[in-house]
């Protein structure tokens, strides 16, 4: 099983995450809290209350964990294509796989990474939603002191299953949308690249950026539900399950609720995925 795709996926995932984290914090807050009027209001309040550091809350943890999960996505994707089409990454430019194969391999990667992502994503969302300013004398301490404390508290209160809160919603969110992600990337690359050649850096940036946007647009409704299920039981009401969360969110806030965070998700998705794909392709090319 070729391993370099896993390593390249890991490094490229980490680069994308750093670039995207401030957007991600604003998104999670908009999706789960009602105190903000919009993106700008959320940014201003976060800055005033918590300084620039507020945007980078909980970042070291995703860098260490979620970038590893990205390696699973790209590693499984490439190895699934190898199994389906018997071509390695290097051979695929000369013998491009069909879009059906790309879709199936993307869904497989998405499905497997979602399960590994679930506990890390849960901790990220819980930490991002702590809006208390850092270490102000006299103010009550935040519920979680950091990622390890957060994981331990959830484990203590709810057992190992607690760490997989929202995992179903996450799997449903990621399986089809990561199929869409790789199909969009491949399709755009092929539009701008002569047959048999490697896409230029510009093409990879644009194709990666749009692959990110399109897959995030498709993923946003379930992203909202996922974040709410992850926060359930804390500040938020508890839900009877995925369906209950969908129905009661729609009843209380209208259908627009499913598009919360769409603009910010898309604004984040372009740079993050442009850099992710560019560094991924570059690393694989330089390793030959
Ligand atoms: C499929 N869905 C759109 C949900 C996720 C796509 C993940 C791609 C990248 N790691 C990122 O954070 O943007």
UniProtKB/TrEMBL annotation:
It is a multi-pass membrane protein. GO terms for cellular component: mitochondrial inner membrane. Keywords: Membrane, Mitochondrion, Mitochondrion inner membrane, Repeat, Transmembrane, Transmembrane helix, Transport. Belongs to the mitochondrial carrier (TC 2.A.29) family. The chain crosses the membrane at residues 61-86, 98-120, 204-225. This is Solute carrier family 25 member 45. The keyword Transport applies. One of its GO terms (molecular function) is transmembrane transporter activity. It is found in: Mitochondrion inner membrane. It comes from the Eukaryota. The keyword Glycoprotein does not apply. Solcar repeats lie at residues 1-83, 97-191, 199-286. Its main location: mitochondrion. Gene3D superfamilies: Mitochondrial carrier domain.
């Amino acid at each position: 099983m070729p391993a370099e795709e896993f390593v390249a996926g890991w490094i490229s995932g980490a680069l994308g995450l750093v670039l995207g984290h401030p957007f991600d914090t604003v998104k999670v807050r908009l999706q789960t809290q009602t105190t903000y009027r919009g993106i700008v209001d959320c940014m201003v309040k976060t800055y005033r209350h918590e300084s620039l550091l507020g945007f980078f809350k909980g970042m070291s943890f995703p860098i260490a964990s979620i970038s590893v999960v990205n390696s699973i996505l790209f590693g499984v994707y490439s190895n699934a294509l190898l199994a389906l089409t018997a071509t390695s990454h290097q051979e695929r430019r000369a013998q491009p796989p069909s879009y059906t194969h790309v879709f199936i391999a993307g869904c497989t990667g998405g499905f497997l990474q979602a399960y590994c992502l679930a506990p890390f994503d849960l901790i990220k969302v819980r930490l991002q939603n702590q809006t208390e300013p850092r270490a102000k004398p006299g103010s009550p301490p935040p519920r979680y002191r950091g990622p390890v404390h957060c994981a331990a508290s959830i484990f203590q209160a709810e057992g190992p299953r607690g760490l997989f809160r929202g995992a179903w919603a996450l799997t449903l969110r990621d399986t089809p949308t990561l199929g869409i992600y790789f199909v969009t990337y491949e399709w755009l690359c092929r539009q701008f690249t002569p047959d048999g050649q490697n896409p230029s850096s510009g093409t990879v940036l644009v194709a990666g950026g749009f692959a990110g946007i399109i897959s995030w647009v498709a993923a946003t409704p379930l992203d909202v539900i996922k974040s709410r299920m992850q926060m359930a039981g804390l500040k938020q009401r508890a839900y009877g399950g995925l369906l209950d969360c969908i129905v009661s969110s729609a009843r209380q806030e209208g259908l627009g609720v499913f598009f919360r965070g769409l603009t910010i998700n898309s604004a984040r998705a372009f740079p993050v995925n442009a850099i992710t794909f560019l560094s991924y392709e570059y690393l694989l090319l330089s390793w030959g």
